[in-house]
Amino acid sequence: MKFFTVGILVILTLSAQVFAEDKLQEMVDNTCGACHLTGKVSKEKLERMTAPPMWGIATKIKAHIQGEQEQIDFMVDFVLNPDPKKMLFPQETIARFGYMPSQKDTISKDDLQAIAKYLLTKHY
Ligand code: HEC
Predict the structure, then answer these.
(1) pTM of the predicted protein model
(2) Residue identifier of the C-alpha nearest atom 21 of ligand 1
(3) Residues 85, 91: Cα–Cα separation, whole Å
(4) 93 lines ligand 1 (CB under 6 A)
(5) Collapsed DSSP state (helix, strand, coil) of residue 110
(6) What span, in angstroms and rounded, lies between the C-alpha atoms of 29 and 26?
(7) Total structural domains in the chain?
(8) What pLDDT digit, counting tens, does each position of 21-46 carry?
(9) Contact (Cβ atoms closer than 8 angstroms) between residue 36 and residue 52
(10) With a 6 A CB cut-off, is 99 part of the ligand 1 pocket?
(11) Which residues form the domain of 93?
(12) CA distance 86 to 117
């Protein structure tokens, strides 16, 4: 009986985690995904992409910034207060895609923290 209970608890915890990650992925697709390429690549997504792909951003951040929390902080700060001076991508990116508008009004800081952590530590 004890093993059964523990088993059920493990399954519940794991499915809660999967559920939380599905929700985060959905948030990413609905917010960042309007411009950045996120999730599975498809021809249709490539055609409507108006910002650098999210895996590219995650890779750049990890290559340039030390420490998991510092990487999350960079992403959160950039999304709320984007500034060409803070960019890790070359300035030519702006010529190709334009500037990123602040997402202050479309996403709460708490959601953004969760998204940044998910993208940088789980997804890419
Ligand atoms: C309205 C379109 C749009 C949305 C929505 C958007 N972005 Fe961006 N983002 C851009 C563009 C365009 C750039 C490249 C130019 C620039 O850096 O300003 C960019 C650049 C970035 C960079 C900086 C890359 C560098 O050079 O260091 C980060 C980080 C980023 N986006 C994260 C996000 C995240 C996370 C979300 C979702 C919460 C998001 N963006 C939503 C358009 C968007």
Answers:
(1) 0.89
(2) 100
(3) 9
(4) yes
(5) helix
(6) 5
(7) 1
(8) 889 999 999 999 999 998 888 898 88
(9) yes
(10) yes
(11) 2-123
(12) 19
Cβ–Cβ contacts within 10 Å for residue 65, how many?
Answer: 17
The number of beta carbons lying within 10 Å of the beta carbon of residue 28 is 20
Which residue's alpha carbon is at the smallest distance from atom 40 of ligand 1? 32
- Would you say 30 and 24 are in contact if contact means Cβ atoms under 8 Å apart? no
Q: What whole-number distance in Å separates Cα of residue 37 and Cα of residue 56?
A: 9
What's the Cα-to-Cα distance from 39 to each of 7, 51, 83, 94, 95, rounded to whole Å? Answer: 31, 14, 25, 23, 25
Amino acid at 64: H
Instruction: Say yes or no: CB of residue 94 within 6 Å of ligand 1.
Output: yes
Q: Which residue has the tokens 């998204």?
A: 115
Closest among 16, 17, 18, 56 to 36, alpha carbons compared = 56
Does residue 104 or residue 9 have the better pLDDT?
104
The alpha helices in the chain, defined as continuous H runs, are: 2-30, 43-48, 54-64, 68-80, 92-97, 109-117
Cα 104 to Cα 101: distance, rounded to the nearest angstrom: 9
For tokens 């420490």, the residue is 67
Distance separating the N- and C-terminal Cα atoms of the chain: 39
